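Example: DUF3006 domain-containing protein.
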Amino acid sequence: MKCLKYTLDRFEGDKAVLLIKGDETVEEIISKKSILHTKEGNIYEKCFSNDYKVFKVHYLEKETINTRKRSLEILNRIKEK
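Written out as structure tokens, the predicted fold is:
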């Protein structure tokens, strides 16, 4: 089984656009209904079986919170300059 992490970038109608973490140039479009906690910026882990069928998608709450916190700290440092 292989797992990849994604960031929820945006919505386009009933679709969610995910970006692969570490290579944000790669987009993957999935049904908005197939994920929980649909908020832009959330981080998900998507696991595949050996034949690359999606096995599970789950929301990474702690990683999302930590990433938002780091982003806010960086933004505040930039604003102080």
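The two ends are 46 Å apart (CA to CA).
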